[in-house]
UniProtKB/TrEMBL annotation:
This is Inosine-guanosine kinase. It comes from Escherichia coli. Belongs to the carbohydrate kinase PfkB family. PANTHER family: CARBOHYDRATE KINASE PFKB DOMAIN-CONTAINING PROTEIN, SUGAR KINASE. GO terms for molecular function: kinase activity. The lineage of its organism: Bacteria, Pseudomonadati, Pseudomonadota, Gammaproteobacteria, Enterobacterales.
Length: 224
């Protein structure tokens, strides 16, 4: 797939390029402005160091990945916070990370569509998601939800073994009406993931995912 934007920095040695000191004085063609759009299941990667008793108490299987209910995830998260066991909280998600990386490399606009907690506490996982995403990634179109976004816990045990606990939260509650047609119409590319259409019956994410493909058939799209 061709890089759909203006790459500001070349991360290799340009042996046949013009002098970069001269290039910076050449005016850019503003009419070539473009952005990419991505739809994602917004989730946060939360890493913590715990003992074996912690893993057993929450019914997890050491070294494996399990899906947990929202109430279990909330209790787990609150205990990690109270005991100061959290080491990192990263913005996760395949498409969210892709939009972030695009904006960093191109120094250009990308737009992320998904959900975000309506009420955000300073220092919370949702707060960290916003803080750790490039300022060139437009998050203004995220749909607010009354509840948690997705959370993926990486629990590092006493032996160093990693146990994963995944809580979907409200990450699949993106509605079709939250997909802005004008943003889709002006985009140079649309980036999707097949996880978006693998949801529980009744969840609106699959319909929201397919809306851009039905409203603008000539857009370049990529499934990840």
């Amino acid at each position: 797939m061709k890089f759909p934007g203006k790459r500001k920095s070349k991360h290799y040695f340009p042996v046949n390029a013009r002098d970069p000191l001269l290039q910076q004085f050449q005016p850019e063609n503003e009419t070539s402005a473009a952005w990419v759009v991505g739809i994602d299941q917004t989730l946060v990667d939360i890493e913590a160091k715990v003992d074996d008793e912690f893993i057993e108490r929450y019914g997890l299987s050491a070294g494996h990945s399990l899906v947990i209910e929202d109430d279990v995830a909330e209790a787990l998260y609150q205990e990690l916070k109270q005991k100061n066991l959290i080491t990192h909280q990263f913005a996760g998600g395949t498409i969210g990370n892709t939009m972030h990386n695009y904006s960093v490399l191109a120094d250009d606009r990308s737009v992320l569509l998904g959900v975000m907690c309506s009420n955000i506490e300073i220092g919370s996982y949702a707060y960290r998601y916003l803080c750790n995403t490039s300022s060139r990634t437009d998050l203004n179109y995220l749909q607010g939800v009354d509840g948690p976004i997705g959370r993926c816990f990486t629990l590092i045990g006493e032996s160093g073994e990693r146990t994963f606990a995944i809580s979907p939260g409200h990450m699949n509650q993106l509605r079709a009406e939250s997909i802005p047609e004008d943003v889709i119409a002006g985009a140079s590319a649309l980036v999707l993931t097949s996880y978006l259409v693998r949801c529980k019956p009744g969840e609106p994410m699959p319909e929201a995912t397919m809306k851009p493909l039905s409203t603008r058939r000539n857009i370049t799209y990529r499934w990840c």
